[in-house]
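ok so i was messing around last nite and threw this chain in just to see what happens. nothing serious, just curious
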Amino acid sequence: MRLEPNRGAFVAQPSKQEAREIFDARILIEPRVAALAASAARRPDIVRLRRHLEDEEEALHAGQVNAAISLSARFHVAIAEVAAHSILTELVTDLVSRSSLIIALYWCRRDITCETHAHHALVDALARHKTGHASALMADHLADLVTGLDLTTKDVGPGSLAEVLR
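result:
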């Protein structure tokens, strides 16, 4: 973000190439994180993740799309925290933060935020300690998310934070 006197705050706008690279990194990292989380998950972790999904669904049903995107991002970080791998958690935190802005800028399929069934399936796999299944679900979920983004046309120009969050 950059601040311009008398004009306001402006968001750094990732190019479509950068957006593709961020999701490429997520697709490389997060399936491994999901597998680690499936190995490490304990009952309190599953309860916390299920509660998080309830909050995400409430935001969607209330039409709070920005809140739902934020909650979805935090869900991915929560899975990384369950995996208990500090470096991967740091990477996931950074990548999902950047992804939230990318989704706000480039989404073309509004239903991508409504696919909480993928998150439920992930939690179920973690609860059953199904490492391979959790990894595959995460890879599929991220690939599906990318299909909901328009990363093929020219980049958008700079804009204000208010314009991006509308």
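not much to say yet. The helical segments are 16-40, 43-61, 65-83, 86-106, 116-127, 131-147, 161-165.
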